[in-house]
Amino acid sequence: MYGNIKIILTLDVNLAQTTSFLKQIFKSWKMITTSTFNFLLKLKENNNREWFQQHKKEYESVRKEYESFIGDMIPEISLLDPAIGQPALKDCLFRIYRDVRFSNDKSPYKTHFGAFIGKGGRKTNGVGYYIHIEPGQSMIAGGVYQPQPDILKLIRNEIYFNSAEFKHILTDPKFAGFFGALDDFDKMKQSPKDFPADFPEIDLLKYRSYIVFKTLPDKDILKPDFRKDILEIFKAMLPFHIFLHRAINNG
């Protein structure tokens, strides 16, 4: 099976015809190519408006490539996780322009392409799937990133009352094999309010974000069937997301 396409070969199928058929399938699937990586590498070395304007057509070409790829992924992910609905492509894509108002780094452009696929797109405060393409730093991620206090409280409540289930999800061999553990980049040092400090699983309630990620080498991104790899990663993530959906929607 390739994605949602089943290919059944019988003994009387001509090999040349089969090969041609497979090539047509892969051709119809949008891919990330070396052009995208080459542009992002050059942008990293020339992160200024003058250079960017001189290479605007190149940017538009690779941007279109990435948009087409994400556009193909959205219905696949929606089929996997119907709770996210059918978000519009434009709502899922992050702009390449950086907000430098409060940053010491005044570089005007991001050196990666990113998309967050969830209900409402990148601005959602809920569960979503993230695809990040950057030379040497590409990753696939998911979960709930820095939710509003009311949403965070719902997630913590769900974990508090169903900690055994949540731990089972996190320690599942397939899940742990892909993601290791929850990302603790913004984890609290103290126990959160409204929960007993002696709760045996209090450590699980200290997260401000409930996200996981898997980094991928450039060679994997460039594979013709990279989309299939993404779906396998997201399938391993699905029980985690179902738990988070339940926490938010039943709160």
Put the structure in a nutshell:
With 251 residues, the chain is α+β, with helices and mostly antiparallel strands.
Q: What would the keywords be for this entry?
A:
disordered N terminus; 4 strands; 251 residues; alpha+beta; four-stranded antiparallel sheet; BirA Bifunctional Protein, domain 2
Q: How are the secondary structure elements laid out?
A:
Blueprint: H1 15-28, H2 34-45, H3 49-54, H4 56-80, H5 89-92, E1 113-118, E2 128-133, E3 138-144, H6 149-161, H7 163-171, H8 173-179, E4 210-216, H9 218-221, H10 226-249
Antiparallel strand pairs: 1-2, 2-3, 3-4
Describe the structure.
The chain has 251 residues and is α+β, with helices and mostly antiparallel strands. Helix content is 47%, strand content 10%. The protein has a four-stranded antiparallel beta sheet. Helix 4 crosses helix 10, helix 6 crosses helix 7 and helix 6 packs across helix 10. It is globular and about 60 Å long.
